[in-house]
Amino acid sequence: MITGHLGVAAAAQGYRRGGSLVWLLVAALMPDAVDAAFVVARSCNPHGLYSHTLPAAALIAAVTGAIAFLSTGQRGTGLMAAA
User: What span, in angstroms and rounded, lies between the C-alpha atoms of 28 and 2?
Assistant: First the structure.
């Protein structure tokens, strides 16, 4: 499953060379990182409700895209990370 996440990031990098591959990899793994954070915090995340549903994924994408944009200063990287 992780290979699929990383494959999507690599495909996005191949589609548009302007984005940072590191940020695309981070963005692809963020739902799993959020899920892992809930495990570490020993908090209940029933069936990935807080990390793998569409509203959660949209929120994670927006936050990750904003952080990518603010750290690189490249709008394309922020948009690709959010997408």
Answer: 9
